[in-house]
Amino acid sequence: MNRNVSGSTQSQALNALIFFYKQVLGKEIDDIGVFRHSKKPRKLPVVLSRDEVSRIIAVIEKPERNLMASLLYGCGMRLMECVRLRVLDVDFAYQQILVRNTKGGKDRVVPLPKNLIEILQDQINQVKKIHTEDLEKGFGSVFLPHALARKYPNAAKEFRWQYVFPSSSIAEDPRSGKVRRHHVHESVLQKHIKKAAEQANIVKRVNCHTLRHSFATHLLESGYDIRTVQELLGHADVSTTMIYTHVLNKPGVAVTSPLDMLPVVD
């Protein structure tokens, strides 16, 4: 309150105090004094126009990064959902992608854009070559969730479980000490999106999540109902999805400014 910090900063400090007492000191906090808990302000998401999305994707020269950015917008995927995508999750026959273990621990299905089918097939073929070379060198293993790894001990070396966007190098997994190829680091795509927005001369604050926001808003603009968009985004509550209707309502845009109604003076 004295330093006028944001609500998230205050919450972080409060959680840190509670964690320290409970986990470190082993004590319960009965009363931490009188304070006013700040409320997190409701902020509207930054949304790009269709033209702005096209300009951003067009300037990303590296094919793999271009494909990842296209998936964020074309499927409404979150950043980590994209980098953790595995080969078996892509269904070309039904033109859909299975997004596993999303926020909230649920799976969901999103449409695979027709424009990306051939490009995605080429990417998976490239992953196949990389995986074959890794196997020949004695590697080829990939991280699997612990329960899955125990149930199928040989699955980690199967091609279908490989990441669609693998890292360029093999490294030691700090969790297990095993040497294997992980997925590409999320910061790689973040940097490409930010740089692309600058090159496209877009002044809005653009990040990976902005493409997801734009996906939802453009679907609603095209006439899809809110429940469908909710399912595609993986929101547990429709009220979360309702935030995107601000563009459709356009309360400020529908009002004619009094400046535009002034008589013209010669």
What does this structure look like?
By secondary structure, this protein is mostly helical. The chain has two domains: 1-41, no CATH class; 50-248, Intergrase catalytic core (hpI Integrase, Chain A, Orthogonal Bundle). It has helices spanning 7-25, 50-59, 63-75, 79-83, 117-136, 146-151, 186-199, 208-221, 226-233, 238-241, 246-249, and strands at residues 90-91, 96-99, 108-111, 166-172, 179-183. Strands 1-2-3 form a three-stranded antiparallel beta sheet. The protein has a two-stranded antiparallel sheet with strand order 4-5. Strand 4 (166-172) and strand 5 (179-183) form a beta hairpin. Helix 2 crosses helix 7 (186-199) and helix 3 (63-75) packs across helix 8. The chain is globular. The model has no long low-confidence stretch (mean pLDDT 89).
